[in-house]
Design a protein that fits this description.
The structure is a homotetramer. Chain A has 14 helices and 13 strands. Chain A is an alpha/beta fold. Chain A folds into two domains: 2-7 and 260-347, Aspartate Aminotransferase, domain 1 (Alpha-Beta Complex), CATH 3.90.1150; 14-255, Aspartate Aminotransferase, domain 2 (3-Layer(aba) Sandwich). In chain A, the strands form three sheets. Chain A has a seven-stranded mixed beta sheet, with helices on both faces. In chain A, strands 9-10-13-12 form a four-stranded antiparallel beta sheet. A two-stranded parallel ribbon of chain A has the order 1-11. In chain A, β9 (285-288) and β10 (294-299) form a beta hairpin. In chain A, α1 (14-23) crosses α11 (246-255), α2 packs parallel to α11 and α12 runs parallel beside α14 (336-347). Chains C and D meet through loops of C and loops of D. Chains A, B, C, D: Pfam families: Beta_elim_lyase (PF01212).
Chain lengths: 348, 348, 348, 348
């Protein structure tokens, strides 16, 4: 079976694994105070061109979202997200578990729109009873979105403007950020993203690491970051401080060496476009075409049955009216041979 | 100024106040273990025809919703509510503060629809990833709704059926329940409501008491209730256990003596219909007409300015396109003279 | 039976009740925006000689403690309290429910000692691993304590100094503050207390009101208070915002008129001293003698049985080795006749 | 420098690392549904001789404690722990963050005593006001303790008995369980431990893995476990569900192959005894001697300065009165050569 069901089905990219092997014997400090974590932080700061950014490594995406949102929001604030945002739907209530409401705006192929956000917030402040409501304190965007789609530079800047106007922070969930940076379409650069977002994370789990996400508190115009006080203590309080912090530090050091991070993204995106071509050629209609590594197709039952004899894919939602929405994903371990085989086997 | 802005602008109904005065000197046990609270509980059990129901008195509506939802839901569960439900919008995130997500379905003049609820829940269970989502564990209905509207018997029974089918509890927020019971249109009786709901509360704050809400865990088919264990301790943990529990007990004892509760509702509803007639007669268009004590009107700016020189009303949402949505509310202290004066003064 | 079991067994002081009756018919704004709440706030500000203090009225003591501690502490901070402090023992975990740890120091007849607090905090900061521990962010003192005892001016000032040295806020729980102010022994004045504490509350429930506590954020040296932002919203989020805020406002307006608050305390304390005299005279040994309205006695089983045929008292802890620790409490409704009767009946 | 500061300073045991390398390329299911996690679970069940035990893998110890305690306790319950227990002191309030109070009993070299636990719980239930207090719902024991010490079989069985008598669950924190199992002194076996505890975890982070802890819900007398419902969803809600669950599964599969887990413990314990001998020989007084891999010494300043030129150690608490309490720890990577070098260098 060809593995196209997600981008975390394989272990680590060979270079990342190699780094783990090579550093295994070293006696290091715990809790992120080791030299590899220090190096990883430094390289991320260089990549975003912000020498004072705050960088912290944790193990998973939902964990990251919970910690960032809970520690950056005030108690009376909620976070605005698209209805399809990961924090809205697929985190088992982790945001609410930490006391905060997710305030939703419509989703367009995974993307929130600046106009909807502005409308939500201005209606809130116009409401005479807003003291009895949850204050919007942050905007959460997934980039790429859960559907692989990307915000344009203009849209991101407009959302940034709204955040400033209404004193909200902007948090960009980059669980798959490398795929955005590796997109062949026009897109913002990593330093631009670090200027637009108050905080973002760049994910390892879905981009060549065994696990790990790097939270980045970016420098604002005054050169300072919005990093929450005693952030290490707060990570610990959320149960997320790894004793062997090195396990993530070593991997991120590798990912941010020679731009491996973006290279993985670029290559996977190319594979994804080949998958789209093959699928379309065989009569599978695209449902959402994205410039990144996630592609969605809509098909009938017989097509679905054929496809699933050839490849593992992800059924995106319960079939309705005989229509199956299927996600196919590429990653660092997707090869030309795999796509060729897909092509060949769908032929039959 | 004529007070039509809400149903808690005056103190207590005279009979309720009298009860407080008469019982003031008695030395009683604290924390709800006094004789008046015992009597109030008993009378509520009689009114709903359920001798084993669990009855608890607390002080406010948001508090009640937070406690009931938090103590009845499991940690991984959320509560389904209409988008306009009080728990969705106007409780400053009190439900999320206690760790639970509010799962919304569309609102039709304040009412959720059985079909939408069924659809939400069945889609949830059909979703292959639902283990990563918030389980729907309860349905929350406001009766009357925040717009004064009422569910039909059939709709309530259908929602009850869905709750049973999907192992959810049904919670009815009766902050204004007396107005529903006093409606002149066809509606369910209090014993019927107690059969349909697993838990409900009947409010005092907005119906003739200074403060107080009575939570009722109803008997299920097996004669038992779903009352959470150590409920007194849990009320205490939520900061809601009054030392002088009597202050609510005495008032509810009065409210449930000689059916005062429903009488207050009936009378206020009649006043509300008179208000509608007067308003319509003077060219104020109804926005939502309800069978209870809350009435909504839509008007232009000059009408709004006229009205607010005569009466205190509640501007329901920020004016848009020159249109003002206004709520007018009657209560135990609304008199025929007040409505006559409204009529006279709008004439000018 | 003579009621000596607590100071909230009777309703409201007659003047307080009268105020409720007289204001009952007025149409007022809700949520604490009524004229009586405004007056009560103003009178409390005058009583503490701080025109800019922030004053908020809520309904109960545990609720107050939970809200003050949760909204003033940062997420990573806990509150230091004596082991016998109300927040440590008798609030069913309400502080932990809102996410904060209670850090305990020894109790001496209900009082924490400055030395123990200093020791706790300096050990914390000396600990090389304190980033993995709960930061002490606040000191909580009960004044009077749960045993009726009072801190000296010097001790309070010393604790204040420690709080400043280690950037902690000082919160004084004055559930029974009027009894402290009415003590015949040397004690701090209300304006002094307001200078020492960053925040305190003065209780109504146990001092002549049906319910209600007044939270006061005091002016600091810079003239500003530490009042949490959007405090009304946060009260609402904790389920504690009363729609008819008047019910507490009217009562506190009465309590702070003509110094009724302190007068109730003074009188009850005098009665308490008479109770001590009577009890001692009849051979009941004092366990803790306090200058306020709570008195503790230790007795054997036969004495306990005699006493409880005469008066309702509070058994303070489970009897051990045949010794009964009993609390007797006076309040606004304790009369000379009651104490005389106690004297007479113990004689038999 | 010789690394003796903790047991997580090196990466993974070579066999564990090898397993990660060998399995890296395999395309596997996520979220713990991969074949290696399945194997690891099976081997743990075999090792404890309980075919129906529930086994779940997460990434860290504080996280494990938070999840187990929060999901097994009812909302109104707290957990009893020794004052020095990890959950009491060194988890930055992670237990309180999830709403539960840690109820402390005295610690004797890291161990709680059955008598103290029984006393605490029986006093609680004897207290007439216990409905206003936090119910003890679980006993938490560290085995080995934070000081390397072990409970005797008799003490564990007695604590088990108390738990049954008072309807509490027994949770054993085995972050370093392999060192207990590898102790040369008389101690319980792993199957015995699984009979005594309702839930325990066996740690990987401090015992040869890069990260990971295995939570085990044991079979009770009726053959069932106390595993919380929808446990995967609850892990997700706590932010602790790894997408590449394999990273822990592969490591635990290796650790529980050929008893590697206990072998690592046995060997490290032997090294620890050699360290004690060497230290004592050089005049360093033992503070606590344990049968496991953690050893404590007390020394004066000049000794401390000498030692820290030779080895990295852990200063256990702030020096007082010129006395330094130092922890030295061995692990899978401690060699005879290291101990010989320690011996040689302390000689100088």
């Amino acid at each position: 079976m060809l593995a196209f069901h997600n981008d975390y089905h394989a272990g680590a990219h060979p270079d990342v694994l190699q780094a783990l092997v090579e550093t295994n014997g070293a006696a290091l400090n715990g809790y992120g105070d080791d030299e590899y974590t220090v190096l990883a932080r430094e390289k991320i700061r260089e990549a975003i061109e912000q020498p004072n950014a705050g960088v912290y490594l944790v193990s998973g995406g939902t964990q990251t979202n919970q910690i960032v949102i809970d520690t950056m929001l005030e108690a009376w604030q909620g976070v605005i997200a698209a209805q399809t945002g990961h924090v809205s739907v697929h985190e088992a209530g982790a945001i609410e578990f930490s006391g905060h409401k997710v305030l939703t705006v419509p989703s367009y192929d995974g993307l929130a729109r600046a106009d909807d956000i502005r409308n939500y917030v201005s209606m809130f402040y116009d409401d005479p009873n807003h003291d009895h409501m949850v204050f919007p304190g942050m905007v959460y965007l997934s980039y790429p979105s859960e559907f692989g789609t990307l915000y344009s530079r203009e849209e991101l800047i407009e959302i940034r403007r709204i955040c400033e106007e209404f004193s909200m922070t902007l948090f960009i969930d980059g669980a798959r950020l490398g795929y955005a940076l590796g997109a062949q379409t026009e897109h913002i650069s990593l330093p631009e993203l670090a200027q637009i977002a108050d905080v973002f994370y760049t994910g390892g789990t879905k981009l060549g690491a065994l696990l790990g996400e790097a939270i980045v508190f970016t420098q604002r115009l005054d050169g300072k970051t919005l990093e929450p006080k005693h952030f290490i203590t707060q990570i610990k309080q959320h149960g997320a401080l790894l004793a062997q912090g090195r396990v993530v530090g070593v991997q991120f050091n590798a990912l941010f060496t020679d731009n491996l991070y973006t290279k993985i993204g670029t290559r996977a995106n190319m594979m994804a476009q080949r998958v789209v071509n093959v699928m379309n050629k065989h009569g599978f209609e695209s449902y959402i075409v994205s410039p990144t590594n996630q592609q969605f197709f809509v098909m009938d039952k017989s097509q679905y049955e054929l496809l699933t004899t050839v490849a593992t894919v992800s059924l995106w939602e319960p079939p309705r009216n005989g229509k199956y929405i299927v996600r196919m994903v590429t990653s660092w371990d997707t090869t030309d041979e795999m796509v060729d085989t897909l092509d060949a086997q769908l032929n039959n």
